[in-house]
Amino acid sequence: MARAAESAVDIVRGIGPDAFDECTPCPELKVGALLNHLIFLTGVRGHAAGLKQPPHAQNEVAEGHAFIAEPDWAEAYAARSAATAAVWSAPEAWVGETALTGSGRMPAPFIGTIVLGEWLLHGWDLAVATGQKLNVDDELAAVLYEDIAGKAEMARQYGVFGPEVSVSPTAPLFDRALGMAGRDPSWKRPAA
Fold it and tell me: What is the pTM of this model?
């Protein structure tokens, strides 16, 4: 979890306000909106879920909060993301049930892998949208691939993933995970 979090944070630190209106591989989200989504799920909700706290706790910021409007937002995210990774690095986070959103409790391992996927998939989305490269080692790619393979069809039914993108079976494992998650590994930023 720590390596996935660090990979996403490296990308987030490389994004300035001039990129907030750029397109991403998520057609409905510009860079700024995707940053706010990533910060909320991996820096706020993911942390609370790892601690088994219910969604919408009294002191929690609400979904839709403009994190990127705050001073030093990228460093604040780095701290939040590290705290989430630390919580999910404890074995007890992976036991029992927890909730990431208000849609009910689910097995903690299911939620934990969603948080991992948020860091890596949206980290990649933000990286390619801003001309950066996400650092994903072979172990992270394998964990992500296995997780996506197990839930891709369900994720598509709920509109979380788009249609599968065909990727060569000899492509790197991370690229194949991206394809299963409805992303084109060769996606490029639109020309200005």
Answer: 0.94
